[in-house]
């Protein structure tokens, strides 16, 4: 009784990691379009609400429900705008506090440059264009509703169960070093922590890079995981050869190079990473897998 209300939109893996960090402070509602997930959400400490962001009428029950919101839902996979975010802003109360999980893809290819949050966005694929549209829609909503908006731009999320093991097992090639791109990372648990900190500490209408301290090229990340799990390293190919062997979507991920600075989350949010680098996160993932196998062997 008396706890402020928080609404989580898109309560998947990261949302489930966020729930234990917030349920003592908030009465949490979780939107789901899948009735089969209600029991799981209740067990994790949330009150499930069945509705669909693609159906504006189904969201009426959420109108004015919670002054705090975490928006984790991605846009749909077509179009130039984000209808889901537009539908959401129609039912949020004035003077809300919202944390939106966007993507580092809004910057496009930066040629491996290192930069902070002041860099202008330059989306270069349809997915990133929709994310920029979502950010713009939320900024307009925050301005007219006197609300506090925080945007976390998130890179590749990894965890023990979110590693490229299947890709390595298939032998999918990676780029040769001369053509390779710099990528950014965040452990799923650290992202959940960052979302919690943003709810309480973020400045209004502020963008934050939700990235760790790693400075890795993409193939080096694959090699790191392969070595840890005793898998073959992926073959390296020049870009023109790799383009003939991978899907256009995968190639697009391997065509944008950027190194994003994270001083703002440390300085303004007080973030202390549990896994400051991918090396530490992969080591912890390996330990977790080994402990799981030992437990199974002993039982």
From TrEMBL:
<protein>
    <submittedName>
        <fullName>SDR family oxidoreductase</fullName>
    </submittedName>
</protein>
<feature type="domain" description="NAD-dependent epimerase/dehydratase">
    <location>
        <begin position="94"/>
        <end position="204"/>
    </location>
</feature>
<dbReference type="InterPro" id="IPR001509">
    <property type="entry name" value="Epimerase_deHydtase"/>
</dbReference>
<dbReference type="GO" id="GO:0005737">
    <property type="term" value="C:cytoplasm"/>
</dbReference>
<dbReference type="InterPro" id="IPR051783">
    <property type="entry name" value="NAD(P)-dependent_oxidoreduct"/>
</dbReference>
<dbReference type="GO" id="GO:0004029">
    <property type="term" value="F:aldehyde dehydrogenase (NAD+) activity"/>
</dbReference>
<dbReference type="InterPro" id="IPR036291">
    <property type="entry name" value="NAD(P)-bd_dom_sf"/>
</dbReference>
<dbReference type="Pfam" id="PF01370">
    <property type="entry name" value="Epimerase"/>
</dbReference>
């Amino acid at each position: 009784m008396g706890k402020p209300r928080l609404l989580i939109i898109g309560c998947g893996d990261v949302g489930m990691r966020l729930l234990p960090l917030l349920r003592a402070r908030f009465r949490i509602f979780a939107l789901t379009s899948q009735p089969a997930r209600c029991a799981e959400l209740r067990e994790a400490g949330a009150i499930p609400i069945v509705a669909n962001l693609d159906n504006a009428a189904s969201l009426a029950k959420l109108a004015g429900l919670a002054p705090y919101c975490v928006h984790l839902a991605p846009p749909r996979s077509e179009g130039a705008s984000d209808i889901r975010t537009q539908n959401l802003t129609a039912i949020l109360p004035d003077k809300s506090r919202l944390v939106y999980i966007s993507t580092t893809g809004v910057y496009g290819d930066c040629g491996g440059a290192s930069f902070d949050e002041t860099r202008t966005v330059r989306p270069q694929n349809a997915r990133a264009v929709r994310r920029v549209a979502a950010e713009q829609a939320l900024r307009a909503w925050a301005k007219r509703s006197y609300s506090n908006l925080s945007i976390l731009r998130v890179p590749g999320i990894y965890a023990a169960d979110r590693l490229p093991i299947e890709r390595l097992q298939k032998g999918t090639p990676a780029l040769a070093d001369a053509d390779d791109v710099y990528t950014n990372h965040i452990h799923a648990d650290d992202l959940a922590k960052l979302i919690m900190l943003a709810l309480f500490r973020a400045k209004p209408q502020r963008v934050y890079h939700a990235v760790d301290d790693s400075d890795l090229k993409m193939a080096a990340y694959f090699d790191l995981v392969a070595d840890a799990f005793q898998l073959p390293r992926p073959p390296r190919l020049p870009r023109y050869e790799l383009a003939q062997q991978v899907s256009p979507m995968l190639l697009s991920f391997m065509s944008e190079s950027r190194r994003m600075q994270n001083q703002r989350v440390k300085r303004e949010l007080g973030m202390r990473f549990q896994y400051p680098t991918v090396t530490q996160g992969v080591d912890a993932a390996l330990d977790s897998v080994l402990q799981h196998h030992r437990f199974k062997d002993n039982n």
